[in-house]
Amino acid sequence: MRAQEFRALFVRYKILALLLALAVIWIFFHIATDGAFISSRNLSNLLRQTSITGMLACGMVFVIIAGEIDLSVGSLLGLLGGIAAVMTVNLQWGSWPTVVAVLLLGLVAGLLNGFIVTRLRVPSFIVGLGGMLAFRGVLQGITHGATIAPVPADMVYLAQGYVNQTLSSWLAAIIFFALVVMTVARRRRRAALSIPQSAAWRDALKLVAIGAVMAGFLVMLNRYNGVPLPVMILLALLAIFTYVGTQTVFGRHIYAVGGNMEASRLSGIDVAGVKMVVFALMGLMCAFAGIINTARLAAGSPSAGTNGELDAIAACFIGGASMRGGAGTVHGALIGALVMASLDNGMSMMDVDNYWQLIVKGSILVIAVWVDVLSGTKRD
Question: Domain 14-379 has what CATH class?
């Protein structure tokens, strides 16, 4: 196969290539750690670790698809998690009122970012950079630079609890059944509109592969303590964001705005409104991630969320999002988040120096963007 044909095949099946790369990473670390990496205990910790970056990636991928960027998400995660700790520890609020209040604050913070970008016409890069500094400063102020602990046990359960094994099995079955129904409905809809589609056996093979992976993970996790609760929350968010991105008019508008903003405006799409909602969703995801992070640590830390924006952005690009906007998927971003978490987890188990971890992660990000450049060259 010629180099050009190989490149075209690689670009066309980005997600498959990413899954193969993830498999290689796991096999390498499994061998290097004498079989400790792919164990029930470590997979549980790995997926729990992935959940926070994955939540940020759910929102960030929509921001990137819309042609924008948000560098403030790590600091906003830390701020919202710190507010949750202050409310529950210092102000003696209950956990659930605190969760609701923090989610609303995240939504407001995202709307503020979106307002500055769309109405005041400040580039999103600068808004995110300013927010990264400002939110971190507010966090330092409300915590006085000290860790706030301990948060209530029912909040800690959100990050450290597990889903009952029977319930998780039923939920997995429901998710798989929903995937089958959606696949059949999509094929029928495309057939009714005479739209060309792939052979039925390909979709069937894809569903079988997804089912096998789900069953394998479920068996492995149930051997330990079950599915971690934050992982289940992440899967629910994945389902919601995937549905919004692929099955709604708003989702199509996000792709249209990122693909060609001027054409979208001329076709009647409220470009500013779409971007406002996208930034609001990003703020909401920062709130989810901040709550889970505080619950995981059982404390609010003034350094929480440091470099969180870099991991989220890297996860999106590694997962196939385009730096030019208009392309990307939620599931791809979550696979990218799993790649980043796998690298952190595996290199930590191997006791690799921190500077090498940064070098490896930075190199992989550059390679991911280079693949996107190849894809753009192919389209051009």
Answer: mainly alpha
The encoded tokens of residue 368 equal: 């991911």
- The number of helices, as runs of H, and strands, as runs of E, in the chain is 16, 2
**Cβ–Cβ under 8 Å, residues 74 and 309:** yes
The two tokens of residue 139 are: 């966090």
Cα dihedral value 363, 367, 368, 373, nearest 10 = 140
Q: Is the preceding peptide bond at 150 cis, omega within 30 degrees of 0?
A: yes
Place of tokens 């970008």: 117
* Contact residues for 327 (Cβ-Cβ < 8 A; gap 6+): 65, 255, 258, 259, 320, 321
d(CA 12, CA 15): 9
pTM over 0.85: yes
Query: Each residue of 32-49: b (16+ CB within 10 Å) or e?
Result: ebeeebebeebbbebbbb
Q: Residue 251 carries which side chain, given as an amino acid letter?
A: G
The per-residue pLDDT for range 78-128, each reduced to its tens digit, is 999 999 999 999 888 988 999 999 999 999 999 999 999 999 999 989 999
Where are the chain's structural domains?
A: 14-379
Number of other CB atoms surrounding residue 28 within 10 Å:
14
The pLDDT tens digits of the residues spanning 243-294 come to: 888 888 888 989 998 888 888 888 888 888 999 999 999 999 999 999 999 9
CA angle, 67 as apex, 62 and 68 as ends, to 5°? 80
3 state DSSP class of 148: strand
